[in-house]
């Protein structure tokens, strides 16, 4: 087994990080980042592509050098250029890059002056005040850094769902391929589709447990075998992700799956219900005294307690058991209910594909429509559009729609919400678009009152349709900005503004808890990928996961509607 695409992408990203810290040519840095993105989003295993003799230079962002690099990495599992760079720079520096406010230049400065190479050393220098002697390090930045250190430490122990996924899926296939393995499932928070997972909990039903254990610990991506027993083993993968494997008997599978899927809070409540009936529920089944009553499937277990089947995403003890008792669980939205993607960037601003390419890629995914929503001009780093360029783009979209078959391209904008709550483009052009997304991209540090006032004002613009990534958080990197959420929900509802569930795996903004609360307040949503290239359209899956965790049904979403219906609801 060779390295997976995401591991190769990791190597390229590390390379880019190291080059940046070294102060190398930004062009070179970008080349590695682009290559990482291509590899990460490929959808097919690079190893297979190379084996089939494909010319990798046909892939976007991969030239001859990078194609050679991939061949080297696949063959040796290492990248000599990265190894050389690592020898040049002290280890740990790249970890500092995850701190908001610290770019490569400042990291270099910290290293050169104080020899700082770790979060601990950084925290120390910040707390002692030593850090202020550096040019450009004022109290605001230092406060940001200290917050960032806390976040990074917390995030270090958990893995984003999309990071864990390739490992979970590959391990599932690896275990399934072993003779005599009847069932394999990844339980735990992974099965509940949480945005981050602490570890993976895998269950197997097999004819020969011991042989499966031996097979499991031979999995290539294991760094360390922590414990190995006939029915339970724990390993650490090369990326430090822990995996627990448990073998269970066929007749206990349902009960074990239920137990190890969790959440703990959900399980505790279920167990209590059983106790009230004079029963006992554990990972082996449902029992009355010593007598086994059932529990070979999850469905049976729920039925015995008088409950409808509860989807894993709901099992957080947030009212799902009460709803299951009363028979009014939500019918959760599914990926194939989604008919279009309403937040997409193109080459016109910071995207990497043309409007036509994005439309084709969306059509391939079975969509009926997309909305092109490039940035507005305040976002200069993204080459945001001013009114003139936006109008040019609108004309182009009209002509593209005349040519295109089977998909409609809607004209939109991701318009910056300025600090006073006004929109970055005049109403005269906003009103001519099919849809307007409003987004906050700066001044994250306003007080709760100021930030709420700013966004409320924007929501009151009669042309605004969708509030993008409403809380601005980046998982493990930036906290949500301070907002009076109930007030935001109230105004969205009154004004008929939809809330975005941004599907970027590091955003997933709104989060599950806010989604559920907003739904209860009568808010409608759209799940959008915010894609900057074709492959990122597949992020929709993560957005759907998050929506399901927030109890969202097909009817709660606008991008499950036909294009005609959608156009109606977009008219405010
Ligand atoms: P994670 O790994 O932190 O993302 O979260 P989980 O939910 O995967 O938790 P984990 O790996 O500690 O345990 C897997 C499942 O096993 C958990 O969701 C519920 C079950 N479980 C673990 N410990 C207990 C416990 O003390 N009581 C009960 N009722 N269930 C437990
Ligand atoms: Ca777990
Ligand atoms: Ca575990």
Q: Tally the structural domains.
A: 4
CATH superfamily of the largest domain: Metal-dependent hydrolases
Low-confidence regions: none
Q: What is the CATH architecture assignment of the largest domain?
A: Alpha-Beta Barrel
The biggest sheet amounts to: 7 strands, parallel
Q: Any idea what the radius of gyration is?
A: 25 Å
Overall pLDDT metric: 93
Q: What proportion of the residues is helical, as a percent range?
A: 40-55%
In spatial order, strands of the major sheet run 11-12-13-14-15-16-17
Inertia-based shape: globular
Class by alpha and beta content: alpha/beta
- Give the distance, in angstroms, between the N- and C-terminal Cα atoms: 54 Å
Which oligomeric state applies? single chain
**How many DSSP E strands?**
17
- CATH C-level class of the largest domain is Alpha Beta
Predict the CATH topology of the largest domain.
TIM Barrel
Description:
The structure is a single chain. The protein is built from 24 helices and 17 strands. With 572 residues, it is of the alpha/beta class. The chain folds into four domains: 151 residues, DNA polymerase, domain 1 (Orthogonal Bundle), CATH 1.10.150; 90 residues, Beta Polymerase, domain 2 (2-Layer Sandwich), CATH 3.30.460; 73 residues, DNA polymerase, thumb domain (Beta Polymerase, domain 3), CATH 3.30.210.10; 236 residues, TIM Barrel, CATH 3.20.20. It has a seven-stranded parallel β-sheet with strand order 11-12-13-14-15-16-17. A five-stranded mixed β-sheet has the order 2-4-7-6-5, with helices on both faces. A three-stranded antiparallel β-sheet has the order 8-9-10. Strand 8 and strand 9 form a beta hairpin. The longest helix has 18 residues. The site of 2'-deoxyguanosine-5'-triphosphate has 14 residues, from helix 11, strand 4, helix 13 and helix 14. The site of one calcium ion has 4 residues, from strand 4.
């Amino acid at each position: 087994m060779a390295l997976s695409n995401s591991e190769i992408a990791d190597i390229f990203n590390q390379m880019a990080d190291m080059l940046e810290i070294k102060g190398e040519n930004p062009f070179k840095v970008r080349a590695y980042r682009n290559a990482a993105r291509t590899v990460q989003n490929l959808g097919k295993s690079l190893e297979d592509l190379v084996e089939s003799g494909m010319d990798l230079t046909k892939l976007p962002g991969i030239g001859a050098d990078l194609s050679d690099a991939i061949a080297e990495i696949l063959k040796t599992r290492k990248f000599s250029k990265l190894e050389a760079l690592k020898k040049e720079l002290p280890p740990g520096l790249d970890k500092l890059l995850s701190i908001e406010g610290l770019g490569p230049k400042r990291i270099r400065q910290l290293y050169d002056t104080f020899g700082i190479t770790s979060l601990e050393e950084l925290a120390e220098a910040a707390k002692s005040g030593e850090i202020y002697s550096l040019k450009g390090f004022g109290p605001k930045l230092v406060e940001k850094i200290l917050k960032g250190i806390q976040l990074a430490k917390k995030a270090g122990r958990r893995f984003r769902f999309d990071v864990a996924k390739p490992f979970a899926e590959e391990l599932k296939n690896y275990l399934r391929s072993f003779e005599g393995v009847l069932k394999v499932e990844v339980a735990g928070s992974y099965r509940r589709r949480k945005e981050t997972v602490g570890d993976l909990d895998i269950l197997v039903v097999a004819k020969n447990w011991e042989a499966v254990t031996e097979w499991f610990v031979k999995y290539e991506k294991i760094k360390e075998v922590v414990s190995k027993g006939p029915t339970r083993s724990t390993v650490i993968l090369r990326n430090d992700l822990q995996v627990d494997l448990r073998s269970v008997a066929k007749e206990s599978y349902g009960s074990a799956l239920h137990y190890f899927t969790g959440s703990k809070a959900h399980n505790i409540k279920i167990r209590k219900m059983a106790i009230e009936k004079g029963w006992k529920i554990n990972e082996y089944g449902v029992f009355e005294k010593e007598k086994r009553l059932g529990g070979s499937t999850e469905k049976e277990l729920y039925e015995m307690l008088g409950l409808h089947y509860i989807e894993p995403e709901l099992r957080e003890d947030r009212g799902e058991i009460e709803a299951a008792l009363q028979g009014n669980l939500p019918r959760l939205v599914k990926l194939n209910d989604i008919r279009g993607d309403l937040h997409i960037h193109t080459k016109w601003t910071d995207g990497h594909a043309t409007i036509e390419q994005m439309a084709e890629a969306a059509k391939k995914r079975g969509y009926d429509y997309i909305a092109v929503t490039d940035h507005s001009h305040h976002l200069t780093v993204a080459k945001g559009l001013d009114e003139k360029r936006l109008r040019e783009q609108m004309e182009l979209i009209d002509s593209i729609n005349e040519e295109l078959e089977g998909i409609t391209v809607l004209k939109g904008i991701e318009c910056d919400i300025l600090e006073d709550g006004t929109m970055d483009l005049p109403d005269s052009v906003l009103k001519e678009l099919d849809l307007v997304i409003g987004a906050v991209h700066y001044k994250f540090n306003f007080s709760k009152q100021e930030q709420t006032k700013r966004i409320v004002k924007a929501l009151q613009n009669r042309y605004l349709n969708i509030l993008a990534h409403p809380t601005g958080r980046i998982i493990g990197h930036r906290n949500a900005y301070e907002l009076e959420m109930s007030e935001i929900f109230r105004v969205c509802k009154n004004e008929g503004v939809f809330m975005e569930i941004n599907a970027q795996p590091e955003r997933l903004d709104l989060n599950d808890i806010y989604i559920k609360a907003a739904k209860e307040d009568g808010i409608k949503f759209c799940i959008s990928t915010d894609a900057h290239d074709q492959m990122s359209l597949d992020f929709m899956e993560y957005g759907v996961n998050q929506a399901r965790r927030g109890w969202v049904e097909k009817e709660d979403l606008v991008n499950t509607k036909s294009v005609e219906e959608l156009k109606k609801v977009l008219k405010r």
